[in-house]
Amino acid sequence: MVAETSAPKTTPSIGDYLRNNIREYGLLVALVVIMLFFQFLTAGVLFRPVNLTNLVLQNSFIVIMALGMLLIIVAGHIDLSVGSIVAFTGGLSAIMLVKWGLHFSIVVPLCLILGGLVGAAQGYWVAYRKIPAFIVTLAGMLVFRGLTYLVLQNRPIGPFPKDFQLLSTGFIPDFLYFINPLPGVITNFFALVAVLVLVAVAIYYGVKDRRTNELHGTENEPFAFFVLQMGIISAVAIFLGFQLSTYKGFPNVLVVMALLIALYTFVTTRSTIGRRIYAMGGNEKAAKLSGINTERLTFYTFVNMGVLAALAGMIIAARLNSATPKAGVGFELDVIAACFIGGASASGGVGKITGAVIGAFIMGVMNNGMSIMGLGIDYQQLVKGLVLLAAVFFDVYNKNKG
Amino acid sequence: MDNIILEMRGITKTFPGVKALDNVNLKVREGEIHALVGENGAGKSTLMKVLSGVYPAGTYDGEIHYDREVRHFSTISDSEHLGIIIIHQELALVPLLSIAENIFLGNEIATNGVIDWPKTFSRTQELLTKVGLKEPPTTRITDIGVGKQQLVEIAKALSKKVRLLILDEPTASLNETDSDALLKLLMEFRKQGMTSIIISHKLNEIKKVADKITILRDGGTVETLDCHNEDISEDRIIKGMVGRDMEDRYPPREPKIGETLLEVRNWNVFHQQHRDRQFLHNINFNVRAGEVVGIAGLMGAGRTETVMSIFGKSWGHKITGEVFMHGKQVDVSTIPRAIDAGLAYVTEDRKQLGLVLNNNIMHNTTLSNLNAVANNGVIDDHKERKVATDYRSKLRIRSHSIYQEAVNLSGGNQQKVVLSKWLFTSPEVLILDEPTRGIDVGAKYEIYTIINQLAAEGKGILMISSEMPELLGTCDRIYVMNEGRIVAELSKQEASQESIMRAIMRSGEKH
């Protein structure tokens, strides 16, 4: 019989707490360190408002796809086809918008549905025919790349109508310009206010959560730690918000991305669907015998991935203002790497949305920083590869030690 | 002073937060069979891992004397070099390789990396003869049963010139015939002067073969019994293991049997893989409210397959027959439907099929009935926490909290988590498949108590077990299965080990 230890402590020491949660904080710290590192190496270019905006625009699609990929990886599968789906749906949107002259309000939902169908076509083989996802999506990667060349007839299509381009190039207008106290410095006061409101809301809910946890006797992080963490995150958020507000404010894409991150965090942590995906990835047979329809669940994770890849495809097409058959080549690797850097386990059942998002930004900041420094694609790939290996090694090392 | 081949002195091994072994002593004479017993978590496996070098010298305190010298093993190959070989509970064979390839895996008979197949096969043949396994060396592991696989493991140990053979629960997954054969083999080896240490929960087997019995409890040595000096009864061993007298291994119960809950009629099932082979023939049985019904039979009789085919058709192919609940026919064609009909199935293999090991107790508890703690697909944390806390205290799951991961629980507590999960679906009939396998004596008693409580609440219990005393001790009625058929139905009065075996043997003659 397992020896009983002393009664559970509600507030562990800071050291214990850090040790138990080293992965999450380590990741966040790594992102901050990498940002500061490149801020230094690029002589301050990284944090310039225009570059921060670029950083968001360049990485939004990777982040958005990482949300879906995380679910797939947690479910115990993989999707190699997302890069091709990006090109395929981007191409279809170009044909509908440019060649057929359809309005974007029809094209956008239509492309999302098409992306879902593409995901369904692959999910069917994985879920119901039990073909390994690696093989199905490898086939999908080739098939949809081929189809992209076919529908685009090997030529890029563009430019897009202005309203569609706004998806990527638009900004949230300054609704509060009339009360801007510093019109010379701040060019989008709304962005700053929005960040401040969000920070206030986050702190309110953070404190409320602690309160309910105390009420129910659940373990809380040490208070000093909570304050420190909240303080740092708020400071960083306010700083970034301020920087953006001195340029054009929030890009539309940032809002879409933020909403999706919030939605998927909620789904993975609070919903029955999320719980079932984790259970299925942890032990598929046990989940099935517990009455979970594992086939359907697998199927829908692929449908979901297809929809998100389609959204990413349109964002990229709008950003480049042209759909090309070569769009999205190699994206699947960036997306998958983001999830693994973010702490997802290749054997399924483990991984967090926040981890994948931070992972995506770690990759993004490295790309961006090295590009500013003028390092070639050769070094960029080399460094990214090593970072991926180091992050996963850190996981494995931690697990064996604990 | 007689020939002490192994002496472990004052072994203490700590893991973060837990003292797994506390000043353990073990003395093994050359040429004896030494049994190591204790409840789960008593430290048996940890002790053997210390001995074999899985936990290298330096990570524990104490001394290991082997062959009259102090040894410091830092890897498994160090100990194997001196003839100490462990055969673990989970067999370490590669399923798709042949017997010969497995025996010489990592130890191939080769010159410059080129394998000498004729020599490999002839050596394998010699070894297989020694262990009494009649299979060609080219047979793949996946094509032979667990009993034979166990023999291959032993042959593999012999190929490494074993002097001290350690078997961790060697008969846990074997039927009686195979177990007997294995025990005979051990006694044969003893005659040839080989020493073995056997870890087992099956006390009757230990009584049969052991010369000495060392009992561990809570990471410490309790005592070493010499089976030649005195007659050691099973109760005597249990007393040492649990630290108190176990008057009764089965809690008493006054059955109050009501109407028929579950009835299965004309159930025919074809084999899952060999699709043209009928595996289950015309099965008919019923379970009444407040009744504990057992299914006895040898390994491979089709007991697990029967209940799995009923529970959402999760085994088999071309399934025909009818299932009734309260006399009304119900649809059990998918697992969610079977659950809705009021069935719950606690699987035989809790690690592979019962639990999500890296999830915590709370998540495992609510998994089958997640909607009951959720509103419109959003989980209500407080409700979920309350459910998990309630079951944790009701079933007395020993853990730090409901947030402890299932993988870190002992076998008995894992089983209680699986039970919680199914109880939370409020089933009417609970199917238990080997509910106490690999669980220590104390926890077994608790599981029986839970079974009794459930029956008293008016639930029907259908229990599969390979331990006949357990069936006889807990069931009101026992069906006997053999070769895919129900061959006898015995009331509590009629049932005995003899009558069950007789039913099996007699049915075997007919076919």
From TrEMBL, chain A:
Keywords, in A-Z order: Cell inner membrane, Cell membrane, Membrane, Sugar transport, Transmembrane, Transmembrane helix, Transport
Primary location group: membrane
Pfam family, one: BPD_transp_2
Membrane topology label: Multi-pass membrane protein
Keyword Transport applies: yes
The keyword Cell membrane appears for this protein: yes
InterPro entries: ABC_transp_permease (IPR001851)
Compartments it resides in: Cell membrane
Coiled coil regions, renumbered to chain: none
Signal peptide annotation: none
Residue intervals passing through the bilayer: 25-47, 54-74, 105-125, 131-152, 186-207, 223-244, 250-267, 297-317, 329-346, 353-373
Function: Part of the binding-protein-dependent transport system for D-xylose. Probably responsible for the translocation of the substrate across the membrane.
Annotated NCBIfam families: GguB
Protein name: Xylose transport system permease protein XylH
Species name: Rhizobium herbae
TrEMBL record, chain B:
ABC transporter domain sequence ranges: 6-243, 264-508
GO molecular function annotation: ATP binding
Alphabetized UniProt keyword annotations: ATP-binding, Cell membrane, Membrane, Nucleotide-binding, Repeat, Sugar transport, Translocase, Transport
Signal sequence, start to end: none
Transmembrane segments: none
InterPro entries according to UniProt: AAA+_ATPase, ABC_carbohydrate_import_ATPase, ABC_transporter-like_ATP-bd, ABC_transporter-like_CS, L-arabinose_ABC_transporter, P-loop_NTPase
PROSITE patterns: ABC_TRANSPORTER_1, ABC_TRANSPORTER_2
Family, as annotated: Belongs to the ABC transporter superfamily.
PANTHER family: CARBOHYDRATE TRANSPORT ATP-BINDING PROTEIN MG119-RELATED, XYLOSE IMPORT ATP-BINDING PROTEIN XYLG
Name under which the protein is recorded: Sugar ABC transporter ATP-binding protein
